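Margin note from the TA: students keep mixing up input and output lines. Inputs are the sequences; the output is the structure of the whole complex. Example:
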Amino acid sequence: MSEVKKVVLAYSGGLDTSVIAKWLQDQYQCEVVTFTADIGQGEEVEPARAKAHALGIKEVFIEDLREEFARDFVFPMFRANAVYEGEYLLGTSIARPLIAKRLVEIAEATGADAISHGATGKGNDQVRFELGAYGLKPDVKVIAPWREWDLLSREKLMAYVDEHNIPVEQKKGNKSPYSMDANLLHISYEGNSLEDPWTEAEAEMWRWSVSPEQAPDQATELVLTYKNGDITEIDGKPMSPATVMEYLNKVGGENGIGRADLVENRYVGMKSRGCYETPAGTIMLKAHRAMESITLDREAAHLKDELMPRYAKLIYNGYWWSPEREMLQAMIDISQKHVEGKVRLKLYKGNVIISGRASDKSLFDEKIATFDDDGGAYDQKDAEGFIKLNALRLRLGAKQK
Amino acid sequence: MSEVKKVVLAYSGGLDTSVIAKWLQDQYQCEVVTFTADIGQGEEVEPARAKAHALGIKEVFIEDLREEFARDFVFPMFRANAVYEGEYLLGTSIARPLIAKRLVEIAEATGADAISHGATGKGNDQVRFELGAYGLKPDVKVIAPWREWDLLSREKLMAYVDEHNIPVEQKKGNKSPYSMDANLLHISYEGNSLEDPWTEAEAEMWRWSVSPEQAPDQATELVLTYKNGDITEIDGKPMSPATVMEYLNKVGGENGIGRADLVENRYVGMKSRGCYETPAGTIMLKAHRAMESITLDREAAHLKDELMPRYAKLIYNGYWWSPEREMLQAMIDISQKHVEGKVRLKLYKGNVIISGRASDKSLFDEKIATFDDDGGAYDQKDAEGFIKLNALRLRLGAKQK
Amino acid sequence: MSEVKKVVLAYSGGLDTSVIAKWLQDQYQCEVVTFTADIGQGEEVEPARAKAHALGIKEVFIEDLREEFARDFVFPMFRANAVYEGEYLLGTSIARPLIAKRLVEIAEATGADAISHGATGKGNDQVRFELGAYGLKPDVKVIAPWREWDLLSREKLMAYVDEHNIPVEQKKGNKSPYSMDANLLHISYEGNSLEDPWTEAEAEMWRWSVSPEQAPDQATELVLTYKNGDITEIDGKPMSPATVMEYLNKVGGENGIGRADLVENRYVGMKSRGCYETPAGTIMLKAHRAMESITLDREAAHLKDELMPRYAKLIYNGYWWSPEREMLQAMIDISQKHVEGKVRLKLYKGNVIISGRASDKSLFDEKIATFDDDGGAYDQKDAEGFIKLNALRLRLGAKQK
Amino acid sequence: MSEVKKVVLAYSGGLDTSVIAKWLQDQYQCEVVTFTADIGQGEEVEPARAKAHALGIKEVFIEDLREEFARDFVFPMFRANAVYEGEYLLGTSIARPLIAKRLVEIAEATGADAISHGATGKGNDQVRFELGAYGLKPDVKVIAPWREWDLLSREKLMAYVDEHNIPVEQKKGNKSPYSMDANLLHISYEGNSLEDPWTEAEAEMWRWSVSPEQAPDQATELVLTYKNGDITEIDGKPMSPATVMEYLNKVGGENGIGRADLVENRYVGMKSRGCYETPAGTIMLKAHRAMESITLDREAAHLKDELMPRYAKLIYNGYWWSPEREMLQAMIDISQKHVEGKVRLKLYKGNVIISGRASDKSLFDEKIATFDDDGGAYDQKDAEGFIKLNALRLRLGAKQK
């Protein structure tokens, strides 16, 4: 165990990270700095201050990162139409690099030589935190208590709590049986009955959205305004990135939008079942594609589509702070310069239905596309040469056989 | 105009191809052979026989290709989870190579030296028919009347009909205002009011599905059985490929599944608005991904995902009968050898909701994935080395800056 | 034939484009503007002025574009390590977009409504000129005489020359039997005896380089200095991009570097045999890879490698002025910010041999790479976890079988 | 340390693996089975038998795997034109999966529960051995002594040798200062003075080839015959795969062919300098591309080119025995069915110069490619439509700006 003087801990204020805060002080005989961020998880972060102080922490950082999270992480990712394995909108993955960045920045600011987090040794989050930290501060020491200690059962953990007099909230008993994570983009559920992929998720598990069955019988209509590939207004009202997401989460959740139940492949090697609620993200993905459909060049769109799975995988695997993600981002961002205009859509019982798109930068040319007389905008005879030359190699190939 | 002795025409029995049948005889002074196929478009094909005879055609081919279409074209494509531009399930695209193949085979069988079709010079279908034909019979002559003749308005066409006494059905008047295409996989709509991408599709346009609003208030549950990546049973009942599709179209359509409204990029260069109903395909895509999610290796799945857009584009652009499509198909097919088991899902008002997946060949290992004690199935300490080595280059890169 | 008032012609001063200049005036009854550029082809361009005047041309543009060509086209392409079909360094392809750009700019400046060029209907160059022109000036009219006129044999062409009194140089007789193209990056040969791919190219054909056999028995050593992925100095002497290329062409050619003899796939569908001399380019490709080998991150390099064939194909096919090329360029350029330092190499009888690379921004860490004791810079035990987690999916897969 | 009963060791007969054989017996108190293979490294393998017996080994496996190595590993890899990072021909990488396969098969045959190898914790080979073993026998125990023991300096190793009376050859003193590896495909050098990438490799280091300077002044000409993408004859003489490689190594080495000096990116994270001699491989790569150039369809070739870096990376990283490599191989192999014919080439002082290619399955059509009158084989007017439709999106895009 190498020597550590001061460690910055990603601290939620909950039981696990409270135990870690104490354990770090005991085990490493080091000072602990806590860092708690509001990234839209829907819980108060201010109470973490008193809890930290009660654990003997002197330096406590509590920050509202919602706008930075939406603007610099979620929005750039949605420019890419990123989806992991065809289904997962990367809600947890995209929050980790921001936390890693702030952990490292606070370490720099407070003179800490280490960071620590509460992610287990089986999951992707440890990878995301640590690759981010190493990529931003190459000599940082990372402490991952779940890979080090022997408090691997809840009983041992609670014994440690009692033994060290760690203040915990009384509501221990009613805790959700699922392992959960939440931020502006989503809330996720893992573990418990979900560990059998044949078992349906319980109706009571879901927290952010009603089921499609329980959603209103009337559709909700929205008009989203885009600029440079990002939403800037809803129904004509300018909104900041975080506000856009909060608003879409609300109306999306009310209309049963954005539930997903899937088995995904973790970077650490196993398959895992997860359930997700991503109301805003589900709307944003569909609407962004619609906006691109009339403003983005065909081959630009196809290039993006072909590289999207790789981009999504990079984020899923924790490589946000890598040169290859920056390269792809540069490519994606430059494609969005004319992705602007309006998309009209309806939310109805789990469905996001596009009903219109318009743009001053539209590449849709009615005159050319029409089935009616186009007045010569397009010469149908050109198609023969187009087909003939494209067919030439196929004809030579057919003769080869 | 080169000399043609006999031409095989893709003949629907409708007005346009009837005019073409007559025009070919007049213009090229050649014999015409008609070919009409049932590929699940939902209309009787047998009446085409009498119509063809009335036009003076001697050789008339009428065939039921539904099983071949589903088995050899649709099913292989769904093994790839193919979607064009994130939305379009390739319903029209996948039918054309089969028609092209039969046109060429009939040309060989009847000693014809040319083929002909009724696709216009603005669309993708001309490309798909012709690339297919050239790729299978390199010296074939292709006649595309819409690119040659001057009957470019409905008035001129009707004048030709009258002048040549072409028998047409009386229902001329009530014709749908949309340009439509249908087969086992979908029905499509283009033109008319859809030519403005801001205008919502009319409720009366849709033919195969009810709207989500009008779908039943009760979900329909299904269990699909897969073998080698293909559906072989529904609710425990073995079914042929075409039967699978007919059944899923029926229950899907009843539950408002599979409508899409989008702007796509045509191979010939313009953007075009299309609306589609693809009930079976929508269910099949979601279910196949679920089946793969527990039976397919992570990197095999990611390789498929990265190549899928290219595969979909090949089919969209008309390159089914090309060496590159065969190469990708070989790659995809070999990946499906263990994609087997069951997927349970619910259809509800436009939603396809996966509620379970199970397989004897499952790669999902509950023992490893569990949040509880795993008895040593996975050593959390391994994660440290995994992260450290993956981070090494990032750390060196950070020092470079 | 649509009406044309003024056309800008890419004019070499040679026979073919002189005929075109006259033919355009006759056929279209329009004014002709000539544009002749020095892009390093090794021939005087100034004489084109008098020839143009003799043909009755009033507006004559003659420009030295060597620096622009090297700096804005060749150098950016070499940042990508671009090679078409594993062998071809894109010498002709990369010059066309610059010519297209100037044609269009001169058309704007002179109020011309059309452009014209001397490329045939079988080759790639027509595509490159025209896609460039359409992409920069969408309403431009393009006149491609070789696709229009009937002067398809040399006899007819010479008859036209005589008939119209077109001034041609006396050296007509000694003309090379090959179709050639040259610029700073290469000289190419096609046609004649090369049309049989089994026939070896004649020794007398080659113009820029000696054969390896005739090259000096002593190697020439060079040190190239890089900054942002571009060569800025040779042997410590700062040089402009065009000077770099001229210098490397000279020493490369003297050492038998850069000959290639290959069969390539044209965009218009056929295979074609070409021979190329690309001395500077051959050295630059090898040296740039060596510079990247110590300064570029692994995954950044691999991403570049995977996209390189697509980037090269875009340039080969004429899509320099396309959004997808711009996207890829943005991705490539951002990767080059630390590609700087020195590469030492030897040129010897056709071989480019790297003998050293060094950089202040090197990612090569001797302390870590060493076979000797590394003092803990790398913990070999980390490798076990790395392998174990990477193997996990393979082990689960092996059990599946 | 888990219990091990019997371990199969990849045994070279050299010092290091002899120490390992003894150490395994001591440390694990287990039986050791040795496995020594001739894969063309150019050293006798039979002497390993006596050495193993002297170490107390009872089960000794000595095998000639040259044909299997060439036929089932090297040849399939060359069908892909595989090159890692633009330069490295994967000589070491491709041998490891065969060794891993035999280790596992011998473990099955002898009832061993573990395998062991002499690769260090810093290199790629440990990964290749172990991923292969885990992928073929998921429950195998792998012992990697270099990651476990404390014999990390040569002194400690020699002390162990003396202490345990391990028989070593007398030539200890003259050992090459480089870390080397050899098989039919290549010989490699790492370490020592190569650890500074600015330092040129010493002339005496190279073992298989003369330098270009010392190669004959006369070129050597060869004709290679291909079938299904593999070489089957040289100069008209049928040869087995291993014989092909031995022959080409000989003539290649004599002509100074196949030296490479490069810095590569290891999978375990660091950059490393390596020098390689790959005479046969260098010839095979160039010749195979030439054979494909006239027999492989353009888009098939481009698809291969785009996926090649990924395929090469899989092999470099040790994933030969993975589903994704099998998928890519299926794709590559199907592309080779018509890659047959002859390639003529010259070897001269480090250069491999293609001088001809011919095939009964050639796609090169002189009639179409010719600059002379083609008698209508290709209609130049088709090019206009081809360009016009390809330009349509670019023109719409230009108007957007």
